[in-house]
Amino acid sequence: MNIETPQPFGAPKAKPATPMKARRQRRKEIAKAPARNKAKPEKLSRKSYEKEMEKLQVKLCHLQDWARETGARVVIVLEGRDTAGKGGLIKRITDRVSPRTFRVVALSAPNERERSKLYMQRYIEHFPAGGEIVIFDRSWYNRAGVERVMGYTEEKQVKRFLEDVPKFERWLAESSVILIKLWLEVSKKEQDRRLEARIDDPLKQWKLSPMDLKSYTKWYDYSRARDAMFAATSHKPAPWYVIHSDDKKRARLNAISHILSLIPYHKVKHEKVKLPKRSDKNSYKDELPAHQVKLVRERY
Question: For the whole model, what pTM was predicted?
Fold first, then answer.
């Protein structure tokens, strides 16, 4: 993926390579990049998708037990353009686990008091204690993305942020916090389709905000901001992992599988649970006192 920072963000362009060097570099890029000219994989059937998802959700339950047992602290950062599929992925991750262990953090725009804090402070306040896994639905990387593109912060603050974040993330790694950063990449064509679907669907209209419409006109500005962010903040302790998300089902499976592969969890052994015998001592007539309450009408 291109990680050059083009204008208008003011990064100097690299000197053009000689023709021979350019050809060699191009061959390396083609060898590393996924094959785009291959035929698209067949559409994943719902049955196959649900079967694989169930297997992964069982493993997420094992991860949950391991985190509780060991006191591990895990931070998962999900970033990507509007409609990339972050919400759907989070729903599948958290569907079968405890919200006390898997916490989702989706912060709204900061109020006046929050703006007076250190920038990272409002995010650190939500970091995991021992035995917790925190998923950020957008994160401190707002500064490198929406705030930069929409002009909500000064360029010098963005540059300072991009310089300081790798230091902060290295400190997290040294503090035994597992940090996983995922970028969900959606194509322009698929984003158009998903946004248009939100216009008329009453179940999805709430997802379409005035900010989405403003951002829609700035596709290439977001591309520049993305590449600048990758160039500055993808480092060994916390690299960026990119998941192509035009196919939502495959993206969810790939993302959860990858998250699991990055955490050294294991299945925790438990003694088999056996329900104890109920006691009839101090028995009580426990029929519902219908005259003291109002029953909900059974419409279904």
Answer: 0.84
